TrEMBL record, chain A:
Protein name: THUM3 protein
A biological process term (GO) from this entry: tRNA methylation
Encoding gene per record: Thumpd3
Annotated Low complexity bias: 10-28, 183-195, 224-238
Source organism: Spizella passerina (Chipping sparrow)
PROSITE patterns: THUMP, UPF0020
CDD domains: AdoMet_MTases, THUMP_AdoMetMT
Taxonomy of the source species: Eukaryota, Metazoa, Chordata, Craniata, Vertebrata
Ranges of residues in domain THUMP: 191-309
UniProtKB/TrEMBL annotation, chain B:
GN (gene name): Trmt112
A Pfam family the protein falls into: Trm112p
A GO molecular function held by the record: protein heterodimerization activity
Family: Belongs to the TRM112 family.
Official protein name in the record: Multifunctional methyltransferase subunit TRM112-like protein
One GO process term, biological-process aspect: tRNA methylation
Length: 520, 65
């Protein structure tokens, strides 16, 4: 069984693959239909804490139930292969992969050599065929997308600096998040493999500059890749899938390992697993220009082998102009869902920064009206630019005149909002964190004032607020002072750029607000 | 005031929810027109707030606050 092999011809994808598929006639059809119905088990990484939200979106849009890997930022669901385009349009997921096999209770041998040998031996026993078909199908989708991207005025957002990625590591951070690793993927593609990883055939690996230094102690997961560089020079041309001839695929293995009681590091696992993959498929290992990214996720005794379906993380999709603390779109989406927006709701983000939340809101809930505001002129400018970019992007897709978006940006003071009392249904915002913007002392004064003003503009009884903050102590204190207008309904613990934060869902009590604003 | 006084009445007339013509004009002004340069005027104080490049600035000055 090989990786190059016989390319799939899915009925629906026939047009997309036309370029490489020349000369294939009606005989292709039955196989295509079969492929379309192929059941794919998809794994998705989501912001930790929002697994339930993501599962709801999957049920809503794909009709599938999900298994949740609670607090690990992963969900799993099964869909027919033909649903892949819809899977890519999910707004709560950062990255996608197709599951090759899952082991719920994998017994690792205590001895390092034995444990690694087991992993190597595993490769030939895994059911690669169907997942690889899904991967090929996914490729043809990506090709369509790449062609469209060239028409956009802005370059892909993921090329921007990962501003909320922050620096990982630090001894007090337990259990590194996979999604932070994924967020660094474009960086890691160049940087990964900084540790020595030897190719089984003895060709020494080329070490890239390692930008994220991580200690591979018991707890944190380390990202590593198996790599080899060919001395004889690389085989030219990625080739087109669907040419009918087996072409040599390039691959890399990425291993995330967490939990104690493993006698090996993720680097070692990636290296050896990669070696076995190379032997089995006769593919070429390549850290940077790979076709297939094999994922080896190990969490204590849970092992999941998968093949990546996304390269750039989806979470920066709407934002082209970054600010210092731009919220990722998947987190913004999760927060908005928590509000349960209803058609005609007025949704306000009074500290919008670069506009991540209202932009996501307008895209996904166009039947609501979204208002974004900030006091900072830079933030307002960036938000306005992000909105323009998005409108231009949508323009190029349609030939008809561009529609506007139910979205507006204003410059205002959070403590003196130019909005009528009780006129807003939802307030959603990312409250300033002491560490990155402003200071903890400022938060002491700011938080109660914000909550009061947000309480004033929100409709008593039906209004709600979803607020993200890292300063949980300050927030709790402020909340205790405004118990007559806000009641805490739900708390979601999340991780934002390595910082432990919380998202609070508050409900506006029926008590009417006073119009007169107190002086803070 | 968009300089087209004949389009919208100063106040909504009773039963406006059923008046489709009115609703269309209202929808147009609210959702299809964007003011790029201009101002918003407070109906109580008369104070004007500038709009620049589509973004209104509603910050008060030090003495106003």
């Amino acid at each position: 069984e090989g990786g190059g092999g016989h390319p799939p011809r899915a009925a629906g994808m026939a047009q997309a693959e036309a370029a490489g598929d020349a000369g294939l006639g009606p005989a292709a059809a039955p196989e295509g239909a079969e492929l379309a119905e192929l059941a794919a088990v998809i794994g998705a990484t989501v912001p930790t804490g929002f697994e339930q939200t993501a599962a709801e979106e999957v049920r809503e849009k794909l009709g599938s139930a999900s298994r949740i890997s609670k607090d690990r930022g992963k969900i799993y669901f099964e869909v027919p292969a033909r649903s892949l385009p819809q899977v890519h349009r999910l707004r709560s997921v950062d990255n996608l992969f197709v599951v090759v096999q899952e082991f719920k209770d994998y017994q690792f041998k205590e001895n390092k050599e034995d444990a690694l040998k087991d992993l190597e031996d595993l490769v030939k026993k895994l059911p690669w065929t169907d997942p690889l078909k899904v991967w090929e199908l996914n490729n043809s989708l990506k090709k369509k997308k790449t062609k469209r991207k060239k028409h956009n005025l802005q370059s892909p957002a993921s090329r921007g600096k990962p501003s909320d990625g922050g620096e990982e590591g630090g001894a007090d951070q337990s259990n590194t998040n996979d999604q932070e690793d994924c967020a660094q993927a474009p960086v890691a593609a160049e940087a990964a493999g900084g540790q020595d990883a030897e190719h089984p055939q003895g060709v020494t690996s080329r070490n890239g500059a390692e930008e994220e230094e991580e200690e591979d102690s018991e707890q944190p997961a380390v990202r590593a890749g198996a790599q080899a560089s060919s001395e004889s020079g690389s085989k030219a041309g990625e080739g087109q899938t669907g040419e009918g001839e087996a072409k040599v695929l390039r691959f890399r293995v990425t291993c995330n390992r967490a939990g104690d009681k493993h006698s090996f590091t993720s680097n070692e696992a990636a290296r050896d697993f990669g070696g076995a993959v190379q032997e089995h498929f006769q593919w070429k290992a390549d850290m940077t220009n790979f076709d297939v990214e094999v994922l080896l996720n190990i969490h204590s005794s849970e092992v999941v082998v998968g093949i990546a379906l996304t390269e750039e993380s989806l979470h920066r999709r709407n934002i082209t102009h970054f600010g210092p603390t731009t919220l990722r779109s998947t987190l913004a989406y999760g927060m908005l869902r928590l509000c349960d927006p209803q058609p005609t709701d007025i949704i306000v983000d009074p500290m919008c920064g670069t506009g991540a939340i209202p932009i996501e809101g307008a895209a996904e809930w166009p039947c609501c009206y979204h208002i974004a505001g900030d006091n900072n002129p830079q933030a307002v400018k960036r938000a306005a630019n992000n909105i323009s970019s998005l409108l231009r992007k949508n323009e190029s897709k349609d030939s008809s005149a561009a529609l506007g978006a139910p979205l507006d940006v204003l410059q205002w003071d959070i403590c003196r909002l130019p909005l009528r009392t009780g006129s807003v249904d939802v307030v959603v915002t990312d409250m300033p964190f002491g560490k990155r913007i402003g200071s903890k002392k400022k938060n002491w004064d700011l938080y109660p004032a914000c909550l009061m003003e947000m309480g004033r503009i929100c409709t008593p009884g039906t209004g709600r607020a979803v607020l993200l903050t890292q300063d949980k102590k300050c927030f709790a204190k402020a909340l205790s002072r405004v118990g007559h207008i806000w009641r805490r309904a739900q708390t979601v613990w999340v991780n934002v750029g390595g910082l432990h934060a919380a998202v609070y869902l508050l409900r506006r009590t029926p008590e009417p607000a006073q119009d007169a604003r107190p002086c803070w | 005031k968009l300089g087209r006084p004949s389009e919208l009445p100063p106040e909504p007339s009773p039963g406006y929810e059923a008046d489709e013509e009115f609703l269309r004009r209202l929808h147009h002004v609210l959702l299809e027109v964007e003011v790029l340069e201009g101002s918003l005027q407070c109906p109580d104080s008369g104070r004007r707030f500038p709009i620049s490049r589509g973004v209104p600035n509603l910050l008060l000055s030090e003495d106003e606050a």
